[in-house]
Amino acid sequence: MMKPIMNVIMKLNEFCFIVLILSAISIMGCKEKIAGLDEAKVKSTEYTSVEVSPVVVSNDPIPIYSIGKVGIEEEVKLSFKIGGIISEISGEVGMSIRKGTVLARLRTNEIDAQVIKAQRALQKAQRDLERTQKMYNEGAATLENIQDLTTLVEVSKADVEIAQFNQSYSNIVSPVNGRILKKNAEANELIGPGQPVFFISSRQSSSLLKASISDKDIAKINYGDKTKIFFDAYPNEEFEGKILRFSESADPRTGTFELDIDLNDKGKRLRNGYIGRVEIYPKQITPYFKIPINALVEGVDDGVIIFTPDDNIARRHVVSPQYIGKDYFTVSRKEGYDFSQVITTGAPFLLDGDKIKIAEAISQ
Question: Bigger pLDDT: 139 or 309?
Answer without folding.
Answer: 309
